[in-house]
Amino acid sequence: MWAINWQTKITASLVAVLLVILSFSGYADKVSEEYTETALKRALITFASARVINGLISVAQGTELALQPAGVGPIFTPGEILDPINDLVEQFSQVMLFSAAVLGTQKILIEMSGWVWYSFLTASVLLFWLATLWLPHKFNPRTRRVALALSGILLLFRFLVPLAAIANEAVFDLFLAPGYEAATQSLVETKRGLDDEEKGNEVTDEQTPPKKSFSRSLSDFVGSLKGKADVSDKIEELKTTANQTPERIIDLIVYFLIQTLILPILFAWVGYSIAKGLVRYALEVPPERANPRDG
What we know:
Elements: H1 6-25, H2 27-61, E1 65-66, E2 75-76, H3 79-113, H4 116-134, H5 141-198, H6 214-227, H7 232-283
Antiparallel strand pairs: 1-2
């Protein structure tokens, strides 16, 4: 039966008009672009911090020192401790570069979906479908199906990426933000440690805070190498803090992969499934109407 009551027609018409207004207003595009820009900044800041850690570790790895103040004693190479961490940081940098590229692509897709002429095309097809809905006696059932399916596909491509960006940021705020803040704290401190080192602000024993970050331990370590001091205590401290760093880096890798790989694939699969269903609906043979006057 193809009978459609007037309440359904009014509801469908109101929804179509609201979608057209939303499409031309660009509200969803603006919100999603702001969220994408925020996520992109997070990725770039984290990438920069990872490169800072990589450079700081490379400085420490390129130095050999004696474990005794007078230079008499076994020779220690920091690479024995830092090699595994350096490899992990390099891989982490590649992940962050990938994440930034995905978010940059997402921003471009949002701009493309908000193209005004695409909104005009979507509105035109929606109006044609409404005409087939309100004037069924002037159009055959196949035309109505094709118009509905085409309208759905156009709306899908119009709003899928903006909605995915908004939903992605909502997932981050609800589930990932606390862990992200905790994990990036050490990376931010790494960047600060390098800035202090460049300005010549070397940390002395009296200035050392009770709980040192990985970056501060590396800064102290490099400063000790320059002064040829006894760094056996700092080596032990470096081992302790370095063992904690991989866990933080892996946490960040997981957070960004969820945002830039798992969730985008999920939304792409949902979009593909909806589009496939609409195409199948348009190609199916419509049932016969019992009464040509039925809507």
